[in-house]
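Sample entry (257 residues):
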Amino acid sequence: MAEEILCSIHEGIATITLNRPEKRNAMNTAVLEGLEHYFSELETNTDVRAIIVRGEGKAFCAGLDLRELNARQQSDEDAETGIIELLGKIETSRHPTIAMVQGDALAGGCELALHCDLRVVSEVARFGMPLARLGLIVPFRLGQKLVEIVGPAFTKQILLTGQPVNAQRAYEIGMVHQLVSADELEAATLALARTIAANAPLSLAGMKKSILRMISLRDNIDSDDLNTLVRQARKSEDANEGVRAMLEKRPPRFRGV
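Predicted structure, serialized as tokens:
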């Protein structure tokens, strides 16, 4: 696999590392394909008992790579091609998953953390969904995950302001499970993974399936009209302006078109 994604297995715990620190681990095609490959490969590995997802460097993941996003906006290609399906694969993995979040988890990076079963977070981490600052609308299935975890009130705050929430606030609103110092993050995550890995694999897999079944009614919600709004926003002039402005490190000039 490409160097953008690394995977190691030790004592029954697999660690998948996003390895683009110079790009704040933004998800380009290679990262998405690497995640898909390793989660598919690990699904049939009965020696693995838990999976840790982490990012190399200061950021966990800054979301989709903006340069690739900008290129897709100029074509007919769906900017979110594959990511919703990938996050679904991560969520439904037979293995318990833990996001180890040491820094910013933004947009798709926030969703990557949310689609893991548990989140252990450094006190300097931040979570955010700055799509409104890019002129975009969160896809229905991804917004649905945010509502599931923090409820509609905090989802409105996160989506409508576009501003990140710090680790302490994320812990207070139930977005994360464990908050530790930066120095303790790796040890705390590994300790949690070992605790889970010591349990019976069939029990873990069965309970994960049960929980997913309990919330399965969400899959029956008709969202075609909302997906149309997502596509319209993605092709809007504001969306092109928002991404350009972010790449050029300037305030966007939105016109509502």
